[in-house]
Write a structure and sequence with these properties.
This protein is α/β, with parallel strands linked by helices and 304 residues long. It contains 11 helices and 14 strands. Helix 2 crosses helix 6 and helix 5 crosses helix 10.
Length: 304
């Protein structure tokens, strides 16, 4: 009996290895854009900071005061949003310029943004600066805890740089959509456009934009809190039928979790990734949608 059980286990292991090999080799046959450029590991971040890049702490001012990485400048995510007509919407260029300039940042600085919230706040800061033409921004995977694990020291002493002039660039209209765009997609669906709901399954089940694919933002992370590798992100989304050449529209409740997914997908080579900034708060308020007709729980995801 023990021999048979051992054979079964061996066959199962071989089958699993073959399945993983096929999936990994399959990603190479898709037309992904160049990968990388949006996320850095904690080790890479510390090396870059040693060579002149600026660490940006996107935590709240209160959390920054309790502990932050030595040398990090505090720019809370909350300073780069407005809360009218809905929460956490994109701030205007003048607000961005004032906030970053006051923090001593210019548009030419290389910025390494971290947080303490599963990469959400850092990614939202990145998307915001991308929206105004600044792509010299990287999210530090895993945030403050991962940086500490990599050897970074924390402090309570605030870092203040001399005030600078920050110039926002042109608005990148290919990174954002409005409610009118969502409605036009629902009225005349484009088979190459996919709306992705990045909220929890409980939120999705209570109501979503019709036709949305549910891929919760937390599936972009390993259990450590760091972003999954490029290959693992590709596998996660290809498994849901999300191809690299598709136009992807992301939303959550206030498009902070959506920004976390934006960073993961852009880093993994997805070409056209946009955020619906009004998000579920606006859509629910204006459209008063019914819950989705299907109530099927999501497939188990490996967050290890």
């Amino acid at each position: 009996m023990k021999g048979r059980e051992q054979v079964k286990k061996t066959v199962l292991l071989i089958t699993l290895v073959l399945m993983i090999t096929v999936m990994l080799s399959g990603c190479g046959s898709f037309d992904f854009a160049e990968t990388g450029g949006y996320i850095v590991t904690p080790k890479e971040a510390l090396e870059m900071a040693g060579n002149g890049a600026i660490l940006i702490d996107a935590q709240s001012a209160a959390d920054y005061g309790l502990a932050h990485i030595e040398g990090a400048v505090n720019i809370p995510m909350s300073e780069l949003v407005v809360n009218e007509p809905y929460a956490n919407m994109l701030a205007g260029s003048s607000q961005i310029e004032q906030c970053l300039g006051a923090a001593g940042i210019t548009e030419n600085d290389m910025l390494l943004v971290y947080d303490n919230s599963s990469n959400m706040a850092a990614a939202r800061v990145q998307w915001t600066l991308n929206m105004y033409g600044n792509f010299n921004v990287r999210v530090v995977s895993g945030g403050i805890n991962a940086l500490k694990d990599a050897g970074a020291k924390t402090t309570m002493a605030a870092v203040e740089l001399p005030e600078a002039e920050y110039k926002a660039g042109d608005t990148q209209k290919n990174l954002i959509v409005t409610l009118d765009y969502i409605k036009s997609q629902l009225n005349m669906p484009d088979e190459n456009t996919v709306i992705i709901d990045t909220r929890s399954f409980e939120e999705y089940r209570a109501g979503t934009i019709p036709g949305s694919v549910h891929i919760e933002y937390i599936w972009n992370n390993y259990a450590t809190g760091e972003y999954k590798s490029v290959r693992d992100i590709q596998i996660t989304y290809l498994d849901k039928g999300i191809m690299p050449e598709m136009k992807l529209i992301l939303f959550c409740k206030t498009s902070v979790r959506a920004a976390q997914t934006y960073t993961a997908l852009k880093n993994a080579g997805y070409r056209d990734v946009r955020i619906y900034d009004g998000a579920w708060l606006e859509y629910e308020d204006v459209e008063n949608p019914a819950p989705p007709s299907e109530d099927t729980p999501p497939e188990p995801q490996d967050a290890s």
